[in-house]
Amino acid sequence: MCLFTWTCFASIFLIYFFITNLKKKEKKSMFKKRDKSSKVYEFWYLFLLIVGICIGSGIYVKNQELISQTKSPWIATVLWLTIGLVCVISIVVFMEIAKSTEKEGNGTVSNWCKLFINRKFASFVSVLYTTIYMPAYQSIFVSLTIAYFFAFTGITPDPKALLSVYILVGVSLFVLFAFVNVYSANISRKMQFFAMFIKFIPLIIAFFAGFLIAILGSNPKGNGMGMDSGTDLLFMNFLGGMGAILFSFDGYIFTANTQKSAKNKEVVPIAIISGLIFITMFYVLMAISLFLGGDGSVETVLIQVFSGFSEHPSDTSIKAASTVVYLIMFLICLLNINMFTHFGTSNLLSDHNMKLTYLRKGGNGFKKSAFTQMAISVTFYVALILVGGLSSHGKWAGMSTNVNINFFDPETQKVIYIAYLTSPMFYVGIMSSVCVVLIFIVISMLMIAAMWNRKTQKVKVSKVKFFWPSAIISTTLFLFFTICGLIVFLAPQLIDSSDMNWKTNGGMMFTIIFIVTLLATIVIWLLQERMFKINPFENGFEGEIDKDMKVNNWMAAKEAQELREINNETKTKIKST
Description:
It is found in: Membrane. This is Putrescine/ornithine APC transporter. It holds the Pfam family AA_permease_2. InterPro entries: AA/rel_permease1, AminoAcid_Transporter. This protein is an all-alpha fold. The protein has a domain at 38-122 and 184-227 and 236-362 and 426-540. The protein has helices spanning 2-28, 39-54, 58-61, 63-70, 73-98, 109-116, 119-153, 159-183, 185-216, 234-240, 242-249, 267-293, 298-306, 315-353, 365-390, 403-406, 417-421, 426-456, 467-490, 507-534, 553-576, and strands at residues 392-393, 396-397, 408-409, 414-415. Helix 2 packs across helix 12, helix 7 (119-153) runs antiparallel to helix 14 and helix 9 (185-216) packs across helix 12. The model is unreliable at 10-19, 25-34 and 227-231 (pLDDT under 50).
């Protein structure tokens, strides 16, 4: 556990050291005087922002998963393309929705629901984000950070030690990143800049390597896009992959609100749509490359690279490639904890400022929001990890699990260590699926409300071209994708007839967690409504608590840094004269 903790701290230090030196070099470069208000600069800033938000761990962990769900690389690739294009179409709707908060207010899904639907539903959505969505995403990345650390180091703890590390180190990571975001916002912000390099380098290598492997004919895992384990029930196979791909695109709508702070607002829709088209094509081409070069995973393609594209890679090559992938995934997941800690804190404070979430008065707003979100997320995480670690599911037999027996694969004659290491986070994974379903239902309802607003004019917004065809197509398809994903989650036997037992295939547990999640959210929402009555906001629920409130700590830190740089340049000029 000490080794793990020190590795996390060392990783953060190296990230900070790299970014600090990069920043110093940047100041000395010819780009020091770049115009940050120019259209070109703003276009690329927004373009890279949306690419950085959407392209993350999804392509690493979801593409191979799609094969087991869809039974065909062709179906998986078509799904990447279809859902990506629907997201591109839907952003037109959110460009109009975001115009409601162009001059005042905060661009969160909760606040848009307040404007286009009503305040009570918006408060419910805010509770959903605070108590379920953000904790689930933080928890899944905390869990994967721990699992990939063990996979990278080759350490295989016994079940009791594994569960203890998940609890103790996991809680420490929640606390660590809460403190980093509160007291070292600049470090937190710069970490995400570094994350762009971390996650793209292996993807770019694997992208070109996959096509090269196909040309050389050295794919040891299958026959490229033709690898097919049977395509019976073709329609159900299409349904099976929708949940995984929705997970990979989740969060893209947050970029629509960047037009509020943009100096050149006309470049925002161009940058966002261009970014989404790039993401969609990248996912599609990346999927094709990974299927042509292996079994759909980045790891398999990198094994070929490290073995010199041999059809029979050595154990050393396999070990080297696995180590690289696990190290990269460890760093990506570690940095994603930071990102969702920031998103969770900013979202909670923003919704409080819009009078949607109850927080006690007094003290620093961002600090209070950060530690409130941390407490909620830690409680959520510990509860799910304990249930996942102590109960039996799949090959995991609780604390009596024997890794060499339970996780021995007769087909490969090897122990599947990564499956063992991720077993305690089984229910955390299910909760992330629940979140995807719930949030896309909310998104669909918000788009329906935006269409209704065209008739009622309840919210005065500037009309966006192509709104109606975009709204009708994207809303219809999002509802279809969400319903299909929910059906498959509730009844996995529809796509996997080999396991018709609803109790053991995950369907029953997903159903229970889905219902409990809804009930818990409703109870918390009702309690919050009670607190609103006991301690009402001044001037009711209209407007903001404080129009000058800094709800984004990264932005506040960036503005403070730029102000210091301007002051330093001014002092230098004064001295020189």
